[in-house]
Amino acid sequence: RFLLVCWHHIVGGAAMDEIEALQALLGAVQKQETRPRLSERNCRELLIKLLSNGLVTLIVNLDGNEYVTPEHLEKEIRDEIVVNGGRVKITDIQTAVNVDLRHVQDRMDKILSEDSSISMIDGEVLTSEYLDGLAEETNQILQESGSLRLVEVASRFGITTQFLIETLSRRMGSIVQGRMEGGMLYTDTYIERQEACIRGTFSALTRPTTLASLQSIFYFDESLFDQKVESLIKEGRIKGTLSGKGMRAVYTPEIFIRSQLSAAKNFFNQNGYIEYSTAEKMLINNPKSFLSKEFGNLGFALRSCFVSSRLVEQIDSQIDDAVNNSSCIDIQPLLPPFMDSQDIADVIKNCKSIGKTSRIMTESVIVSNKWLDACIEHIRAKATADGDRLHAALKSDLVSPAAAQDDDDDDDGGRGKKKGGKKNVKEVEEEEEDGKKGKGSKRQELKEAAAKQKEKKGKGGGDESSAKKIDKGGKQQQGSSFDYDGETSKFVKDFLKSSSDDHEMDFASEDFIQEVVVSLRSKAKDIYHEIANSLFTSSATKRVKNDELQSKFVLLYQQLSLFRKGISFFSDETAAAMEKYLLKTLCTDIVNLVLESQCKAHGISFSATAEDRQKVTPSLPPTLRGGMQALCDSLSKKSTADFNSNLEKVASELGVECKPLDKNTERSVVFGVRHQWQEQLKDEQNPPLILLLALQIMLLHVHKVAVSAPGKSVAAMLEKLQPSLTQEAAGTLSSFQELVVKILNSDGGDEAAMAEAAALSETVRSLASTKEGLSKACVSSEK
């Protein structure tokens, strides 16, 4: 009690009140009834019994000292997830709650089925709050860098890339502000900046460039680069094309394509072709395909270039001119120098002018068949002129017809030719067909023949070759020294020199000459034998003079000599016109007279026309054929000098005498010409012819000059006569000339001029038709 009093004094009154309350509570507890208590062992046995009877559901911990209900375990799991920030491994939860992992997994499955905000990935539990935080953190990093690799983000947060893509995809636009493309995250600003840089860079390009080189220079986002380039091209925001895939792709600007095509077109239009190597220098890939696509309708592709149809048409036109003019042309100088034989052959295939009337030689020379015919006629003429030498050289080959038949059969492999070495119709057609082809085995034969000819020339002939006689192929057969091909080659060269200009001889190489020789070999050999046989059979036959031909020929020849002498009286221009007129009239009559007599003698029909003259001349005897051909050709010349020379040669061959004019003969011819003109003047009613005849007669009377003049020479003749005419006669002729000019200019439509000319014709006719009229009209005459 003392202690209590002391304590009371120490703690105070308030504390004592509390103590008293506690004493009262203790007393109440002591008054309650006491119950029996269970031991720990009993409690454990009791719980086991309840569990075995299924009366309670409890989960024992790993220590076996504690039991928890499933609901409490679930609560502890949820609390553990929250404690770990919304992401925890299930094994860590099992360690924290200290129960078997199976019970944790079962309760976790229940939680996942009931709560969609919680998910489990690869043994980890993640809540939606955690994933929202992950997305927010990702978005913060994205906004700072502009682009993120999803692989790096997934590695950063320790989750799979696929789960990250699914997580971020559901939050794109809400939490994550950007775009997800090809395993990358981009902000809109970053993409727009990349597009602007790409668009600016590509707009500045002027030549093809690889994407890899641009990326290495400008450090574009590699994962975004090629995709954006393709999309910008499709949208038309950059002009160009992309070939290839990925970073190996090549971008070609449209401006480069246009300039490239423009350069190719300009070169093609200016030159008519474009070489593939030139196109490659313009950076054109696969130039043959490119040019065929761009210029397909303007030309065609060759092995080394693309050539325009216009160039081929020009070449075809020149070939056509050469063929029509019975000539030959080498097209190689007309083509680009880099073209090889294959290109030339392809060009020739596209030339429409090459057909049955021409053939190809030495790969690029186009030869008209008419040119070859002219060449063979030249050979005939030269061989005819050199007939005596041929006869002597081929005397050993000139045998009886039967022997000639046997030789020809042997030479031709038993094909059986006709007498004189001539072939039957089928063989000739076959050879001509082979010659027209100009290729294949025939081409090989021509090349081999040319090579052998060169080899023989290099060796100087050799004893072995001289011991052989020429067979069908042009080689020498045993027992003959005559070189048929060599003889033909000499004549061909002579023909080229005589018929071609200097510039046309450029292509006349030895190979070309040999091809011509081979193509003419059969015909030339027949000509040699024909001429030699003709001389052989006709050497004992003498020419028989034709009295009728002699008399007519001499009269015309003397008139020709008289008129040629009179032409020298005039100036060069007037004389040239009179020469041409003389060739068309009197000279043509002489040629027709000779041809008519010869055709009649040999049973050949002749109608005295220019076409008939060219047609019948080759049918004349070999000794006369060349001279007559030259005589006919001289009719187209400008001077009568060549005609007169050729006429004398033909006359000599015919045995007709060309008597020159002496004084007595000339007087007789002048008398006959004057009488003929005066008789013609009396009956003539045409004013132009009346004037022409009157002037010719007066010129003969005054100046003793006889001319056969055309109408265009009237003014020159009147000028020569003016000093020697009376004033009245000069006035009459001048007036009559003016009327004639009016009539000719009006083509006979000026009736007044016709009437005046008719009235004045009698006066003009009276001045020249009689000796008295001439004496009155002329003041004096030259002696």
Task: Please provide a written account of the structure.
With 783 residues, this protein is mainly α. The protein is built from 36 helices and 19 strands. Strands 3-5-4 form a three-stranded antiparallel beta sheet. The protein has a three-stranded antiparallel beta sheet with strand order 6-8-7. Helix 18 packs across helix 29 and helix 31 (663-683) packs antiparallel against helix 32. It starts with a helix and ends in a 6-residue tail after the last helix. Mean pLDDT is 76; it is low at 399-443, 454-479 and 538-545.
Oligomer: single chain
For the largest sheet, list the strands in their spatial order.
3-5-4
Topology, number of strands: 19
Main beta sheet: strand number and arrangement? 3 strands, antiparallel
Helix content: 55-70%
Structural class: mainly alpha
What is the rounded distance between the termini?
212 Å
Low-confidence stretches: 399-443, 454-479, 538-545
Radius of gyration: 62 Å
How many H/I helical runs? Answer: 36
Shape: rod-shaped
Question: DSSP strand (E) fraction?
Answer: 5-15%
Look at the structure and give the mean pLDDT: 76
